[in-house]
Write a structure and sequence with these properties.
Blueprint (H helix, E strand, L loop, with lengths): L2 H24 L5 E5 L6 H17 L3 E5 L6 H9 L6 E6 L1 H4 L15 E16 L8 H10 L5 E4 L5 H13 L4 E4 L3 H10 L4 E5 H9 L4 E5 L25 E9 L4 H16 L1 H10 L2 E2 L4 H22 L4
Parallel strand pairs: 1-2, 1-3, 5-6, 5-7
Antiparallel strand pairs: 3-9, 4-7, 4-8, 4-9, 4-10
Helix pairs in contact: 1-9, 2-9, 2-10, 6-11
Length: 322
């Protein structure tokens, strides 16, 4: 490389670094829009709301929640992919983000290339809950009834391809039973249907079903994590109910558009970590069943890559199709 070319490249790299640093100093210069891919009342909403007030203190700008429900979260994700990469529009993604590429052949975005990971924020198990009219009080009883009555049981989900859908499909394949799937536009509407007795059960985020269990409006059959939930210590796991290989956890993270300057990503990452670590916020989220996580952008990227492989195998093995 001759001297002139070296100087030009050095100047270009320096300009990028300086520009990114200046961008970070100015960021945020306007309110932050946090896209939520499901309706109000769901598990993503329950996580985002307690964080919002703390994020506003960290960032010095309002944080506005914008709900863009539908199509398994792909509507909100598509909006993020088209957003200006300046950090002022970000998205809370769930496990469905790693599921959708394996279900939708023509997504209007590239799951790996169009987004920049910011942070993994929280994880939590699912809760298998049912109305009291459902003729089963344990996972073993549920399986026995379903084998004698194929497709008589119905299960709700927060939408086609959602974790609540695929966890149940995984369980059907694992247990060798047949149940009918009834999708809703988000966890909130699905729980309403569950309470009304319109469906037989649901594999739902523990955060949204737990209040109904505590109010004695739904009965818990099992949790899907590797261990029992401290919020429901008497409720067994699916794993210990005769299915040792069945473990499913939901997760929640933050993405920005690809091309967002790294200093901006780092500032957002720090803001989410600090907001989640405020003792009162952590306690509130733990009370909803969330396990608060503060990851680096790289760790979140690795987590999503692992999840992409996991759900690809799960969907193929279970034969799930949209």
């Amino acid at each position: 490389m001759n001297t002139t070319r070296f100087i030009r490249r050095f100047a270009a790299v320096t300009a990028l670094l300086v520009g990114g640093a200046l961008h970070a100093q100015d960021f945020p210069s306007q309110p932050i829009k946090l896209l939520i891919p499901y309706p109000p009342g769901g598990s993503a909403d329950m996580l985002a709301r307690p964080l919002t007030a703390q994020l506003q203190k960290e960032l010095g700008q309002p944080v506005v929640l914008e709900y863009k429900a539908g199509a398994g979260g792909t509507i909100a994700t598509s909006q993020l992919a088209r957003s200006k990469p300046d950090g002022h529009t970000i998205l809370m993604v769930l496990a469905a983000h790693a599921i959708n590429p394996n279900l939708y052949p023509d997504l209007p975005y590239d799951t790996r290339k169009d987004f920049a990971p910011v942070s993994l924020v929280a994880t939590l198990p699912l809760l298998v809950a049912a109305p009291f009219a459902t003729p089963a009080n344990t996972i073993q009883e549920l399986v026995a009834y379903a084998k004698k009555n194929p497709d008589k049981l119905t299960f709700a989900s927060a939408g086609n391809g959602n974790t609540s859908h695929l966890a149940a499909e995984m369980f059907k394949a694992t247990a060798g039973i047949k149940m009918l799937h009834i999708p809703y536009k988000g966890s909130g509407p699905a729980v309403v249907a569950l309470l009304a007795g319109d469906v037989s059960l649901m594999f739902d985020s523990i955060s949204t079903s737990l209040p109904q269990v505590k109010a004695n409006k739904l009965k818990p059959l099992a949790v899907t994590g590797a261990n029992r939930s401290p919020l429901l210590p008497d409720v067994p796991t699916v794993k210990e109910s005769g299915f040792p290989d069945f473990v499913v956890n939901g997760w929640y993270g933050i993405l920005a558009p690809a091309g967002t300057p790294r200093p901006v990503i780092d500032k957002l990452n720090k803001a989410f970590a600090n907001a989640a670590r405020v003792p009162a916020t952590t306690q509130q989220l733990n009370g909803f069943g969330y396990d608060v996580v503060a990851s680096t952008p790289e760790e979140f990227g690795q987590h999503m890559e692992k999840e992409l492989g996991l759900w690809e195998k799960t969907i193929k093995d279970a034969g799930v199709k949209m």
